[in-house]
Amino acid sequence: MKNIYKSALKFSLCMLPIGIIGGVLIGMHNIATLDEEMINQILSQMSKEVYIMVSGIQTGILYTGIMGFLGYILADKVNLLKKLTFTKRSTLITLFISIIVGLLLLSDYFFFAKVIPEVAASYTKDSYSPIYLAVSVIYGGVIEEIMMRLFFMSLAAFIFWKLFARSKEKENIPVWVFVVANIVSALLFAAGHIPATIATFGGLNTFILIRCFLLNGIFGMVFGWLYRKLGLQYAMMAHALAHVIHHVILLYLLL
Predict the structure, then answer these.
(1) Which domain holds residue 169?
(2) Euclidean distance between CA atoms 147 and 160, whole angstroms
(3) Tens of pLDDT along 197-250?
(4) How many domains does the chain contain in total?
(5) Of 12, 43, 67, 243, which residue has the fewest beta carbons closer than 10 angstroms?
(6) Dihedral (CA of 31, 51, 138, 74) sign
């Protein structure tokens, strides 16, 4: 038991610098892209530098440090913890899924942008900066996977297992527990994007809300499946690479 706590601490400490970098990047991105009213509200409370520093510390300590530590322990309790190594077969599977997800994300440009004016207005070349890509890869690919898959999905699986499953051995946890946990965490993942959606489009309507849950919820379940079947590192890889593929193709289309 002591070994798992030591391993969890080691994992969270390794992820901590990535969390701080991701938090700093998202703070910089917010300062550069939020509307003037929201920026003024932030700057009335603190300077840009302090806001960015606070964003980095909060993301590093809370999301990758604490949630990484607790998620690692929870994953072990529900038998979701896998060796953080890479195999050729699993990597190829993940690369294939990354390409599919990256291409499917383009449905936002080819479909939702055609029926939602606010989405169409967001597709400009200036919207896709190097910082935005870095935020998508580091914050989305690493930090969100620690939060939503390692922590929330493992926690949901633990709760459903303890409350509703007959078997109390972690090796015999029913498949439905993980399926439901994946759905719940994917819905939370989608809901977690609502504040950013409001900030981007200046509000919500039915179509924008449906878009938010479809794009983030469905792909969240794909990453959850990878986490369960192959391991957290593959969910991170797929999430990050899908953003890279999506961004590269969009830049080509918008040039």
Answers:
(1) 2-254
(2) 18
(3) 887 787 888 999 999 999 999 999 999 999 999 999 999 999 999 999 999 999
(4) 1
(5) 43
(6) negative
